[in-house]
Design brief:
The mean pLDDT is 85. The protein is built from 1 helix and 2 strands, in the order ββα. It is an alpha+beta fold. This is Haloacid dehalogenase, type II.
């Protein structure tokens, strides 16, 4: 299995639900607190 970073996907979002490991800046994603933040991230 490959990560989105390994597959060269440039625009990524991570929904931080509060129980995951700390963020890893290597993967270059935008962190949002819940799925409701996705619309603002993509400009809707």
């Amino acid at each position: 299995m490959f990560s989105a970073h390994d597959m060269k996907i440039k625009n990524k979002a991570f929904v931080a639900r509060g129980h995951e490991q700390p963020a890893n800046s290597f993967y270059e994603y935008h962190q949002i607190p819940d799925i409701g933040g996705l619309a603002g991230l993509v400009g809707l």
